[in-house]
Every structure is written in C-alpha cells, then in structure tokens.
Write a structure and sequence with these properties.
Number of strands: 22
Distance between the termini: 53 Å
Number of domains: 3
CATH superfamily of the largest domain: Type I PLP-dependent aspartate aminotransferase-like (Major domain)
Structural class: alpha+beta
Helix content: 25-40%
Radius of gyration: 26 Å
CATH class of the largest domain: Alpha Beta
Bound molecules: pyridoxal-5'-phosphate
Largest sheet: 7 strands, mixed
C-alpha cells in the first residue's frame, strides 16, 4: 500500500500515523467498511476491528487488532496491541498495518483519505541502547496494570470488596517480587523506587542501630562507585556525625572483600555495596562480603537495582539483610520499587503515617505500580536465562566489532564479572557528550556516565575510581541493551558509531590518526 500524499511506501518501523480526511468529509464520522465498530461508552473512543485484510507476517493477528480512531480530524491512530506482541518491532508493524488498513478502507468507501506518518514516526529509525537508565514498560506489564487505574480502584487497606481485590493484587505482586530474589513475601516492602529503597535501608539501619558501648559514633562502610542514591545518603550521614569509609575498587571496578573486612570497626553498623554497577555493569563479590558481614555481625545492604531481572538473585545465597530493587529498570513503570528486609532486621522507617507495609512504609499503596512490578518480576524470572544469553551475545558482538573498527578504543570494567547487557567503552580524543548528541542525531540513544554540575561536565566518579584520567572518563560511553534489542539494532550501532567517532576525532586538535601498518 502506498501513501497518496507521499507516493511512497511506509517505512518499516514507523510507529504512529495521522489520518486526515479531505475537507469535504472532515466533519462527518468516518466509516470504515472493512471494520467491525465499537464505541466505548465512557471515553467515547471508537474502536474498530479490522477484518478481511491480509497480514503478511502473522495471519492470526488479523482477528486481534484493535484500532482507536478519535472523531475529530485529523484522526490520530493508535493500536491496542494484544499481549502476545512482545516486541516494539511487532507493535510498530501492527500500527503500520492499521494505518494501511484505514487508507484502504478510505479507498473502499470512496472517500478521499490521506494517511501520513506522524512527525515523530517520520523520524529516522531509532535504536535505544540506554536500558540501564530506564526500560520501556513491557506490554504484558501494562496490560496487568490497566484494570487498577479505573475498574479496580479500591484502597488496598479498605475492608470492603473493592479493597479486598486490590489487597489481593498487592499480595500477589509481593509473592512475585519475593520469588525473584528468593525471599519470603513478608520480607518485601514496596517503595517508590531504587532511591527510596537505598535511603530507607541506609538511614533506617543507622537510626535503629543502638551504637556500640563506649563508641563515639556509628560507622558505615560503602564503596567509591556506588550510585548517588547511596553515596549522597552516606554523605548526609557524615554531616550528621556518622563516619563513613569509602572502600576503593580495582581497575576492573571490583572491590576486594578483604578491604571490606579490614574496614570493619567495633562501631560499624552497616555495610552497603552495590551488586551491579550502573555504568560498567561490573558485579561485586557480594557473597564473600555477605559472609564477612555475617561473621562480624554487621548488617549488609546491597543495591541490586541494576542486577534484578538481569541475573538470578537469591538473598540467602548472597547473604544480604537488605536489597534494593527498582521497577523501571526491569520493564515495570517508574516510581515503584521494593526493599527486601530480612526478618528480624532492626530498621527505623523513613516516613511516618499509617500502618501500611507492616509499619515499614506508610502511605496508600500505589496498587497499579505494585501490580506492574509484580508482573515484571514474574516475567523476569521466566525469561532470565534465555534473555541473558542472547543479551550477552549481542553485547559481545557490539563490543568486539567496535574495538576492531575504532582505533585505540577500550572496554572499561571487568569483562568476566558483569551484567550481560552493559558495555562501557572509551573512545579517546572525543568528548562523550558530543558523541552522545551526534549519535542521537543519527538515531542511536546511549549515554555517558558524566554528570553536569554547575555548568561543567564532571567526569564520572565511577570511571575515575577505576583509574581513568578525567579526559578519558569524559570520552566514555555506556551502551546498555535490553529485551527489545534486535541483532539489526546492533548492526545499526556498528554502522553508526565508528563513523561518528572518526568524524569527531577529525575535528579534534589533539587527535593523530594512527599510521596504518605496511
Ligand atoms: C544502581 C542504581 N541504584 C539506584 C538507582 C535509583 O533508582 P530509581 O531511579 O528507581 O530511584 C539507580 C537508577 O539509575 C541505579 O542505577
């Protein structure tokens, strides 16, 4: 099918379309003869089931397609995708198909009809390699959540049937999250995300710790490469008189468990070490540190925001007393997370209010978000090993080919101990921020670990902690792959990154092209 306005086929992978009728028909309702029509009583939105059209790539989708068409021109078109459509590529193809169907329907009904890809969709092919920053909500997760925004709206603390149903949904989600990390459901507390979980663990343990007799202050041990949710919490503790030891890491980005052991003092009340680093993907020896913490009888918290859903997790094997999880890193929505709190752990709440979450975290539960997190945890468990193998293969292909094609580039962090989806690469002689912007203009989204503070680009604290010079830290990019990443996406990155790096290097006054070997 060709678009009349542009006399060209729709580009594959475009996502949404604007449907405009000719002015003559613009104010009349648009009938699509090839569709079954329904009208939602509450929203007034018309939905049509497209029938009688061929779908080349998957015949049985034919019956499942739902298309929402608003009444006023220009009609904007969106598809309600069935849960079976797991990948963004399939969803885009479905919307594309629906746009073609409208166009065809317009022709069949003898009306002048124009279907144009919307501005956003007309943009180039876009590849998202920033899953450590956030992940899209999985459509199966969204589907599980939707009833809890409107139909199932009860307060989970209410004793009537409305409340009972949402309470049951919250408890099912708690079971799924507990199963993801090998915990008991009663040990899971829902929070607003990774930042709150980290803060609750750190401030909660320190506040509840009695302090050792005769000790002047309490002491906390962490590492130099933690996320700011931990580092800034520790700095706040320091301002309140708590002493904090920031244990350094090796060039590979790993902490030596013996350094943790040596940092322990009689007044140490908490050890907090992240499981996977967000910039490097590097994994810490949590099991060994767990044993050391248990021997010393010190509480042990781990920020598992970047490993939950990517690797198997078992709180008992890891030996942690507290573990943080964030929904939006594992295909659930932003603004929901969980904290595992081992039974018997002494902890002051961060907030004061009602008796929710067994007095651990007051506030009416974010039922839809919690249900989403529960569904995401269930899916992560089911797809963990296949997903990890595929991601590691794609990540390795990307990394290997970039190292071959870009002179003088190198990989940061341990290549043996890391999450399967993350590659952090330094491209010396380029400015990382400029590279991110140039790649974005070509359609590839990735990130630097750099932070912008007071107008100046600060090199990443993680990369400088592993020994990179500030200019090399600023020349580093993180590529983080995800559930939707296809082999074609990796090839797209390989066709894009080397050329963009080469171009930026040519503009650099300090870059000297290596002379090719004879
Ligand atoms: C390792 C780590 N911890 C904590 C957080 C904070 O999580 P949230 O965004 O859910 O507050 C992040 C987010 O990037 C993270 O990567």
């Amino acid at each position: 099918m060709r678009c009349k306005a542009h006399s060209k086929s729709f580009a594959e992978g475009t996502g949404s379309y604007t449907v405009a009728l000719s002015p003559l028909h613009a104010r009349k309702p648009f009938r699509i003869r090839t569709c079954e029509k329904r009208r939602c009583k509450s929203s007034g939105i018309r939905t049509c089931k497209i029938i009688g059209l061929k779908i080349p790539w998957n015949q049985h989708l034919q019956k499942k397609v739902g298309v929402g068409v608003s009444r006023l021109p220009p009609f904007s078109l969106s598809t309600c995708c069935p849960a079976s459509l797991k990948t963004a590529r399939k969803r885009r193809a479905l919307t594309h198909f629906a746009a073609e169907a409208i166009l065809e329907a317009g022709e069949l009904s003898g009306r002048a009809c124009e279907v144009t890809p919307s501005a956003a969709s007309q943009a180039m092919h876009r590849v998202y390699f920033d899953h450590n920053a956030t992940t899209p909500v999985d459509h199966r997760v969204l589907e599980a959540m939707l009833p809890f925004f409107a139909d199932e709206f009860g307060n989970a603390s209410s004793i009537h049937s409305f409340g009972q149903r949402t309470r049951a949904a919250v408890e099912r989600a708690r079971e799924s999250v507990a199963a993801l990390v090998g915990a008991r459901p009663a040990e899971i507390v829902f929070t607003s995300g990774g930042t709150e979980s980290d803060n609750q663990a750190i401030f909660g343990v320190v506040a509840a710790a009695p302090g050792r007799a005769g000790a002047e202050c309490k002491h906390v041990i962490t590492t130099a490469i933690e996320h700011h949710a931990v580092l800034n919490a520790c700095q706040a503790l320091e301002r309140r008189g708590v002493e904090v030891t920031y244990v350094p890491v090796s060039q590979e980005g790993r902490v030596d468990p013996e350094d943790i052991r040596h940092a322990i003092r009689p007044e140490t009340v908490l050890i907090t070490v992240m499981h996977a680093n967000n910039e490097l993907g590097t994994l810490q020896p949590i099991e060994e540190i767990g044993r050391i913490a248990a021997e010393a009888d010190v509480y042990f918290h781990s920020d598992a925001v970047q490993s939950a859903g990517k690797l198997p997790l078992d709180v008992n094997r890891l030996g942690v007393d507290l573990l943080s999880i964030s929904g939006h890193k594992l295909y659930a929505p932003k603004g929901v997370g969980a904290l595992y709190i081992r039974k018997g752990t002494r902890l002051e709440p961060l907030l004061y209010g009602g008796h929710h979450e067994r007095d651990r975290r007051p506030g009416t539960e974010n039922v839809a978000g919690i249900v989403g997190l529960g569904k995401a945890a269930e899916l992560a468990r089911e797809e963990l090993s296949d997903g990890a193998t595929r991601l590691a293969a794609q990540r390795d292909r990307l990394e290997q080919a970039l190292l071959e094609q870009v002179p003088q580039a190198w990989v940061n962090g341990s290549r043996d101990h890391r999450t399967p989806n993350t590659a952090n690469i330094t491209f010396p002689f380029v400015e990382g921020e400029a590279l991110v912007i140039a790649l974005d203009l070509k359609g590839l989204a990735c990130s630097t670990g750099a932070a912008c503070s007071s107008g100046a680009i600060e090199p990443s604290h993680v990369l400088t902690a592993i020994g990179l010079a500030p200019e090399d830290a600023r020349a580093s990019l993180r590529f983080s792959l995800g559930r939707d990443t296809s082999d074609e996406d990796v090839e797209f990155a390989l066709a894009t990154v080397p050329a963009v790096v080469e171009h930026l290097r040519e503009l650099s006054p300090v870059y000297k092209k290596p002379v090719a070997a004879q």
